[in-house]
Amino acid sequence: MSVAGLSGARAATAAPTLSGEVILTLSGQVGTPETGATTAFDLGMLDSLPQREIVTATPWHEGTPRFSGPTIDSVLEAAQARGAMLIIRALNDYASDMPVEDARTIPVILATRIDGKVISVRDKGPIFVIYPFDQQPELFNEVYFTRSVWQVTAIEVMG
Questions:
Q1: Sign of CA dihedral 99, 100, 105, 107
Q2: Which ranges of the chain does DSSP label H, i.e. alpha helix?
Q3: Rounded to whole angstroms, how far apart are CA atoms 116 and 93?
């Protein structure tokens, strides 16, 4: 299994090639059979994808921080992901399942910044899954809190 930046036909239009430190790896049902089953992203590649901002209260922050980053859906598209379930893993090996349907129907983001600043590992970075809790109050519950993984480093796409 090879690790590469974006592969296939979308690589030229979706994001630049890998040039910095890998902060996110997608594995499983990604890419094409010819390119392998792992796609790596650095911060620049994630920044090149369509960005979204969510201002929302969370159980883990004071006030209503402004989170920004690419939607999970755009990351899945860039990695040519196909599947129904995501296993999102953190630095400490915590993992949570997220239905791909969440990414397709809710503007969930892989936040790389809080209030315009890159999220450090100490502040729950490099990537934090953020749901639009204030915009969709029905999401403010334990089901979605467990899917809001912080210190994300890997996503496995399952069938």
A1: positive
A2: 11-14, 43-48, 72-78, 100-105, 142-147
A3: 27
Please tell me the distance from the alpha carbon of residue 127 to that of residue 31, in angstroms, as a whole number.
Answer: 22
pLDDT digits 0-9 by tens, 21-79: 999 999 999 986 656 678 999 999 999 999 999 999 999 999 999 999 999 999 999 99
Measured in degrees and rounded to the nearest 5, phi and psi for residue 143 equal -60, -50
Which of 78, 77, 95 is CA-nearest to residue 155?
95
Ranges of beta strands (E only) in the chain are: 22-28, 38-42, 51-55, 66-70, 85-90, 95-99, 109-111, 113-114, 117-118, 128-130, 152-158
Report the candidate in 152, 7, 3 with the shortest Cα–Cα distance to residue 87. Answer: 152
95: number of Cβ within 10 Å: 13
Domains and CATH numbers, the chain: 11-158 (3.90.420.10)
User: What residues form DSSP beta bridges with 159?
Assistant: none
CA distance 88 to 99: 10
